[in-house]
Amino acid sequence: MDLLGVLPLDELSHGLANLSMFPYFDMAHYIISVMALREQPGALEVSRVSPLACWFSSMLFCFGGAVLSAVMLAEPVVAPLSNSTSVLLASVVWYLVFYCPMDLVYCCAALLPLRLVLSGMKEVTRTWKVLGGVTQAHGKYKDSLLVMIAIGWAKGAGGGLISNFEQLVRGVWKPETNELLKMSYPTKITLIGAVLFALQQTHYLPVQKHHLMLIYTVFTVVNKSRMMLTGSSASPFAAVESAIYKTLFTGCSPYAALTGEVNKAFIDNGTGSTPTSTSATKESDKNGTAGNHTPVKGQSGSHKAKEESENTEETSCKKTD
Amino acid sequence: MDLLGVLPLDELSHGLANLSMFPYFDMAHYIISVMALREQPGALEVSRVSPLACWFSSMLFCFGGAVLSAVMLAEPVVAPLSNSTSVLLASVVWYLVFYCPMDLVYCCAALLPLRLVLSGMKEVTRTWKVLGGVTQAHGKYKDSLLVMIAIGWAKGAGGGLISNFEQLVRGVWKPETNELLKMSYPTKITLIGAVLFALQQTHYLPVQKHHLMLIYTVFTVVNKSRMMLTGSSASPFAAVESAIYKTLFTGCSPYAALTGEVNKAFIDNGTGSTPTSTSATKESDKNGTAGNHTPVKGQSGSHKAKEESENTEETSCKKTD
Amino acid sequence: MDLLGVLPLDELSHGLANLSMFPYFDMAHYIISVMALREQPGALEVSRVSPLACWFSSMLFCFGGAVLSAVMLAEPVVAPLSNSTSVLLASVVWYLVFYCPMDLVYCCAALLPLRLVLSGMKEVTRTWKVLGGVTQAHGKYKDSLLVMIAIGWAKGAGGGLISNFEQLVRGVWKPETNELLKMSYPTKITLIGAVLFALQQTHYLPVQKHHLMLIYTVFTVVNKSRMMLTGSSASPFAAVESAIYKTLFTGCSPYAALTGEVNKAFIDNGTGSTPTSTSATKESDKNGTAGNHTPVKGQSGSHKAKEESENTEETSCKKTD
């Protein structure tokens, strides 16, 4: 009946579905998350000036998904703190990555082979988080596909979605960019996962759960590894995105000229280059006030930095010597 | 006993109270809300660069009241998303207003007669939302007038009250202005409605609910139509506000000179002109740092733009050709 | 068995533990809180331009702890508003401090002896708030020390912790500073109190609750009075903090030079002087964009102003003549 059922992959998918995330996969997630924080511009200075703000930021990187989904479902946001073992583990990782003598832990973890393995393990936790979010939402809102997608997405990509407020903890404020205006690769892949698992949960997608888990996990791990090894941040969905965008969101509007231009920028974004929407820039010049940020302008820079931070290898360790 | 009871208006008020908001009035609310978003500076650029951010912003314009009151009452903020029909309707409206071929929908809806009807229908939904909020708060906090007013206000004027965070979704950040610092007309009228319905609910106001609904609805619709037809944004409460302000909030303080000046600015605000509180401007110049915004300065500009956006007619359509 | 038990202090501690905060101590808290708001730069202009924004800001100063802990525990944030008597009392205080004819109330309360008494009484309420938060968290999360500390801290120092968002109400936005990046004295002493009461609650600290209440209250009141009388903002924990910092958060890292410099700045901070982390400043210069704030820079200014605002005496009243 099911193609995957007759293959030995069925056993593999069952094995994967019964895998426990704690402690190894969770730890890999914490290490990669805290390293991503450390590679943010200004994060090291914050870690020296205020270890508490740095710790709080790290916890938002590690448990951002749990916090965001708690806010969305009106559950206590302190709940993640109540899981003492996880918080302790994440705190130890935070301490070692930021304050280890000789910077040993960070330099080791930043070596390409180890980072590759840890990133792969972190991608595995994504499947569990998205599925957990979708299941939780399904328990509360039986028939609402949209809520399931929203909670699954929030749980899997929470750290990215709340990045504006995480930055605020560190005294950084970049209102001109957010994950909705320009999605990074992890946010995109999580959204796709949330849609797939929500469709599976409501039986619109005729696949068994453990098969979908296997397929999705393999795809994310392979894709992440490919991106790290080739150093490219080209999205595998660029072509599909561009096609959808051209079909749905252009049309013959009085903004044809503008649309064409921004559309080009949009497609460029998909492949990682810098968008320069001149019309938006003009707009912001017209405003004149430094505080009133208009979108688009400058948003790609920080995102690029973020994405690169996950793709940089041992060079980033040498850089700091 | 009741003056309204002996008139044929009684039947009318009963008829109004039994009116269903879904689907026609709700749709008018969505159309006018999404059009107001589209007329925000920079919104069109966002709609081309990131349809998702644009959709999310539109949902905040349409369901802002439900979201804000959910936050205030610690109920799930995703609850509005679980009403699939409403979200679908709002999404269709969003798509048609922003991406319709030839921009047909926006240009039609922006014609004065149609816009007048739609705006009137949107004002009707305000009564229902305010009353819904007051009733909901009354169910939870029996004797707290203040909570009833707060929830009624939040439900009726949520989109405006959370505008700072709605703008953040689009990459815009204007900390120097918010609806509390300088209330727009819709926020004011909603606050008055919330006070009236809360007083009625606690029997301090000896009026029957359906009579109050009729009076409030007629007042908001007539007033909105008058403002759109005359193109004036003069508040009908300017005189009362000014009197209350002079009585309560000036007094013989050491700031007499300052107060007089700002008071003048305040009254000017009431009638729609531009306030220039020189003392506040001096303050902000003294600070010097671009990031530390002091209030007052520049706040009127954006509000004026917002209010005008609701008063502009078909010209705004031509402008874009 | 207990050293304090044999002293007449035992009776005193029982008496203190049975003390009612309402109305006198609560009122002292409201007066000092609203005066602290009034002494913020730009607050007086806001009070003239928008009494509503000013009132809302005052309520956040008075009930910030209750609001923040409600958010963290997913309880309704409007709950503090439902306590009509407290809100009425705080509103009367707000009105008198900002709008009293001849500015009588503010000038009287700003006289050193009266301000000293009121500040002392406000410090007493801190004990009750921290203990209330710890007890509430203990009721929900039995064995989680971290949650108890978080809620106790939030309840006791909420106004400070949410200051970024309180400022936003007044149209001020200072993302480059917050209470986590550079803790003020009240926030620090509240955190210590939250840790002590959480340890007592879980029986790790072998002290009886009323004894701890007495010791903590006496310490905060005496220390606050000393700081106000000497006009010094030197933290009594500077030495301990510096020792902990040197032991845990430096280590032999590749950032030795940087660390040494920032470490120096950190210790200077502890004694109230101005930190100038050149590396962080360079970073912000490199960014160039006015909207992208990097931390550290300029953060001490506002905090100093805040701390001084509590230490200024009748001079601040004369200044305004």
TrEMBL record, chains A, B, C:
Name of a matching Pfam family: TRIC
Disordered, as annotated region: 272-321
Predominant location: endoplasmic reticulum
Record's catalysed reaction(s): K(+)(in) = K(+)(out)
Membrane-protein topology: Multi-pass membrane protein
GO CC annotation: endoplasmic reticulum membrane
InterPro entries hit by this protein: TRIC_channel
Membrane-spanning intervals of the chain: 20-37, 49-73, 93-118
Single GO MF annotation: potassium channel activity
Keywords carried by this UniProt record: Endoplasmic reticulum, Ion channel, Ion transport, Membrane, Potassium, Potassium channel, Potassium transport, Transmembrane, Transmembrane helix, Transport
Biased composition (Basic and acidic residues): 304-321
Location within or outside the cell: Endoplasmic reticulum membrane
Positions with biased composition (Low complexity): 272-281
Bias type Polar residues, positions: 287-302
Family: Belongs to the TMEM38 family.
Subunit details: Homotrimer; conformation seems to be controled by binding to diacylglycerol (DAG).
Physiological role: Intracellular monovalent cation channel required for maintenance of rapid intracellular calcium release. Acts as a potassium counter-ion channel that functions in synchronization with calcium release from intracellular stores. Activated by increased cytosolic Ca(2+) levels.
Database matches in PANTHER family: TRIMERIC INTRACELLULAR CATION CHANNEL, TRIMERIC INTRACELLULAR CATION CHANNEL TYPE B
Stated name of the protein: Trimeric intracellular cation channel type B
Organism: Collichthys lucidus (Big head croaker)
